[in-house]
Write a structure and sequence with these properties.
Blueprint (H helix, E strand, L loop, with lengths): L12 H7 L1 H21 L5 H10 L7 H11 L2 H10 L15 H37 L4 E6 L2 E7 H26 L18 H12 L14 H27 L7 E2 L19 H22 L10 H29 L2 E2 L1 H8 L8 H10 L4 H18 L3 H7 L1 H4 L4 H7 L9 H19 L1
Antiparallel strand pairs: 1-2, 3-4
Helix pairs in contact: 1-6, 2-3, 2-5, 2-6, 2-8, 4-5, 6-7, 6-11, 6-18, 7-9, 7-18, 9-10, 9-11, 10-11, 13-14, 14-15
């Protein structure tokens, strides 16, 4: 029976297949096969033996049940794999795992899993970026109220908001590509990293194995691949989670009943509450924000694993069995939910316009201040004047235009028509549309180079 929600609730089947027990076993066998082939190429073992080991290094022959049976007897998971493979290989079995230590196999298999999992993450990030770019282009001039400190600030466009998110996703794609050089690294260096078990051809053997598997080889390592690499990987996943958390939180806030500018998709039969039939809760965005907490917290574990004692200890092993698949599965879930939300996001333009004018023009005080300074008033004097007039308008619940028009100081510099023009939100979005256009053009160039 499943216990952890990633077994039955979170993550795609595609991602789950990478971390399932049988898939993990196959990756360990892939490394053992590559090791045997490299030995044969260097003349250390007969080619026929390497061919037999490579042929039998498959879950078609080495069954997970048998590996578990052996492990229950000897209490060593990797040696159980070695024994299960060796017994399938007949005479060639004597050469299985020759000169290697457990973590030569384990860490190299890890890198193979990382490569497969990162391909899925990369594809989802690329698709999410595309969705955001489409939204940015569609809403490049959709004027809305911007908020700072949770308060109405100046007009913004939804296109700019989406473009900012798209560029953040692009940076994750860049980080991911850069991290591959340090993360997709295996090793074949023996018990303490000296390669003593491989003799004078150790460096060459390690290079051969990694070349066969499409991985990088470290210049030096101890009994394990150094865990700063894994910490970088989990930090990358946490950064992606943090961005999705940010997007989810913004959607949740903009879905609040009092704001109601955005709505995440809601199916015709979906239930919002077990007791309140009217509820339309932002459950997908909330799910993203909740899972982000787990992924971000896993970075602490990865950082703790960097400081293993001497040439290695085993404290990383149990923790990594949890945090690595968990982080990948949860980020996978978050990315897919984010794509679902943003592909079908609803923008309520009626409420966007309502909120834009909610403060009756106060959100354009800066625009008026700059008009006054252009006409000769001191910037500081204009700021103080408008601060006082804004308070007056707020307390008297009157439009800012009306209060400004009554001010002799303001009328000395601006006509009623100029005041009215300064208070139109669409006249004060600055370079927003141009910034969106530039972001989209840059993204298209980067995407064309990537695919």
């Amino acid at each position: 029976m499943a216990v952890h929600p990633i077994d039955y609730r979170y993550g795609s089947q595609e991602m789950r297949r990478i971390f399932e027990e049988e898939a993990r076993l196959q990756r360990l066998l892939d490394v053992e096969a590559a090791l045997a082939k490299a030995h044969a190429e260097l003349g250390n073992i007969p080619h026929e033996a390497a061919e037999e080991i490579a042929r039998k290094a498959s879950t078609e022959y080495v069954k997970l049940e048998r590996v578990k049976q052996i492990e229950a007897e000897i209490h060593h998971d990797l040696m159980a794999v070695v024994k299960a493979l060796a017994e399938q290989c007949g005479e060639a079995g004597r050469y299985v795992h020759l000169g290697a230590t457990s973590y030569d196999i384990v860490d190299t298999a890890n890198a193979l899993q990382f490569r497969d999992a990162l391909k899925i993450v990369e594809a989802d990030l690329y698709e999410l970026e595309g969705i955001l770019l489409e939204l940015a282009e569609r809403h490049a001039e959709t004027v809305a109220i911007g908020r700072t400190h949770g308060q109405h600030a100046l007009p913004i466009t939804y296109g700019l908001k989406f473009a900012i998110w798209a560029r953040e996703v692009r940076r994750h794609l860049q980080r991911l590509e850069e991290a591959k050089k340090r993360v997709l690294v295996g090793k074949m260096s023996g018990a303490v990293g000296t390669m003593a078990g491989f003799g004078s051809a150790g460096i060459q053997l390690q290079e051969l194995v990694m070349r066969m598997l499409g991985l990088r080889a470290p210049l030096v390592s101890s009994q394990v691949v150094q865990r700063d690499r894994y910490a970088e990987l989990l930090t990358l996943l946490a950064l992606i989670a943090a961005t999705l958390d940010k997007i989810g939180r913004e959607i949740r806030n903009l879905m609040r009943t009092e704001i109601a500018e955005l709505r995440e998709p809601f199916t015709s039969k979906q239930v919002g509450s077990s007791t309140m039939p009217h509820k339309r809760n932002p459950v997908n965005a909330e799910n993203i924000c909740g899972l982000a907490r787990v992924v971000k917290s896993n970075v602490f574990v990865a950082l703790e694993n960097v400081s293993l004692e001497h040439e290695r200890d085993l404290t990383n092993s149990s923790a990594e069995r949890v945090v690595i698949p968990e982080s990948f599965m949860l980020v996978d879930e978050m990315l897919k939910r984010a794509k679902k939300i943003l592909s079908n996001i609803e923008i309520d333009m009626k409420n966007v316009r309502r909120n834009l004018h909610l403060t009756r023009g106060l959100n354009l005080a800066e625009a008026v201040m700059l008009r006054l300074t252009e006409r000769g008033m001191s910037r500081q004097d204009a700021h103080e004047l408008l601060r006082r007039l804004a308070i007056k308008a707020w307390e008297e619940e009157r439009s800012f235009e009306e209060v400004l028009s009554e001010s002799e100081e303001v009328r000395r510099y601006l006509t009623p028509e100029e005041i009215r023009e300064a208070l139109k939100p669409e006249n004060y979005t600055g370079m927003a549309a141009e910034l969106v256009r530039r972001a989209i053009e840059q993204a298209r160039r980067e995407r064309s180079q990537q695919h």
